[in-house]
Amino acid sequence: MLLSMTGFGSATTELAEAIIKVEIKSLNSKGLDLSVRLPRGYYDKEMEVRSLLSHDLYRGKVNINIEIESTGTKALQRIINPVVIDAMIADAKATAKRNDIHYKNILPSLLMMNEVYQNNQSKNDETEWTEVIITLKKALESYEEFRKQEGYTLQLELESYVKNIDSSLTVVDAHKDNRIVKVKSDLQEKLKQIAEDVKFDMNRLEQELIYFAEKLDITEEIVRLRSHLKYFLSSMNEPTPGKKLGFIGQEMGREINTIGSKANDATIQRDIVMMKEELEKIKEQVLNIL
C-alpha cells in the first residue's frame, strides 16, 4: 500500500499536573528533513526522539512539536527570571529616553509576559518524559493512519491514470497497421504520377521503402510501454516505491515521445497528447509518495 509523504497526526495526554501535546506534520521532500521542537528542560532528549522516529520516517519534510502545559500547583511553580526582566526594563527606559517619552512603570505589563518567567524545574522529569514518549507514539500512529488514507487515494488516482494511458495505447495499437497501409498507398499513387518521366531502380526503391516502413513501425515501443505500465502498477505494492515509480514514469515518457515522433499520423498524435497529459498527472502525484 502506498504512503503519502504529506501527513498529520496528533495526540494529547492529561496528567495530574500537566497536559502533554504532540503534533506531527509533513510535506513532500527528496530526502528526510526532520525538525524536532522540545519543551524546556528536555532539549537533551532530541537524539532519543530522532532515533525513535527514524524507524518510521524515510522521506519528507517532517516537523515534530512536543509541548507540556503545566496545570494545577505545577503551573504556579514559576519564578521571575531576573536577567530577562532587568533587560526588558532597561530597554524600555532607554527607548523612552531616546524618543523623549515620559517613562511610566511598565512592570505590571511585563509580569503578564511568559518570557519573564522560568520554570524552577532545573532538570527533566523521567516519569513525565515516559508519558511524552507514549504520547509521541500515539501521535505517530495517528500520523501513519493519515498517510495510509492519503496513500490509498493516491493509488486509486494513479491506477486511473495508468488505465487511461493503456486505453489510448490500445487505440494507437489498433490504428498503427492502417497507417502503414495508407502511407504505402500514398507512395504508390505518387510514384504513378511521376513514373512516366522518371526511371527507377526498382531494387533500390524496394530497399528504401522497406527502410521507410521500419522507421514508421512503432510495435516495439508499444510493447515496451505496455510493459512499463504493468511494472508501474505492480511496483505500487512494494514498500516505499516513490522514487522507483518516478523512474518508471520517465521510461514511460520516453516511449510515448518515441511513438509520437514516429507516428506521422494525426489520429495517433491525438492519443499521444492524451497519454502525455495523463503521464504529467502521474509525475505530479508520484512526488507525494513515500
Structure summary:
The chain folds into three domains: 7-75 and 125-149, 2-Layer Sandwich (Ribosomal Protein S5, domain 2); 78-116; 151-286, Four Helix Bundle (Hemerythrin (Met), subunit A). The chain has eight helices and six strands.
Average pLDDT reading: 85
User: Low-confidence spans: pLDDT under 50, at least 5 residues?
Assistant: none
Count of DSSP E strands? 6
Largest sheet data: 4 strands, mixed
**C-alpha Rg, in Å?**
34 Å
Report how far the terminal alpha carbons are from each other: 10 Å
DSSP strand content: 5-15%
Number of structural units classed as domains: 3
Q: Kindly state the percentage of residues in helix.
A: 55-70%
- Shape verdict: elongated
Order of helices and strands: EEEHEEHHEHHHHH
Give me the CATH fold name of the largest domain.
Four Helix Bundle (Hemerythrin (Met), subunit A)
CATH first level of the largest domain: which class?
Mainly Alpha
CATH architecture of the largest domain: Up-down Bundle
Structural class: alpha+beta
Number of alpha- plus pi-helical segments: 8
Q: Strand arrangement, largest sheet?
A: 1-2-4-3
Record keyword descriptors for this entry.
14% strand; 290 residues; two-stranded antiparallel ribbon; alpha+beta; four-stranded mixed beta sheet; 6 strands
How would you explain this protein's 3D organization?
It is built from eight helices and six strands. It has 290 residues and is an alpha+beta fold. It folds into three domains: 7-75 and 125-149, Ribosomal Protein S5, domain 2 (2-Layer Sandwich), CATH 3.30.230; 78-116; 151-286, Four Helix Bundle (Hemerythrin (Met), subunit A) (Up-down Bundle). It has a four-stranded mixed beta sheet. Strands 5-6 form a two-stranded antiparallel ribbon. Strand 1 and strand 2 form a beta hairpin. The longest helix is centred in the middle third of the chain and has 69 residues, at 126-194. It is elongated, with a radius of gyration of 34 Å. The model has no long low-confidence stretch (mean pLDDT 85).
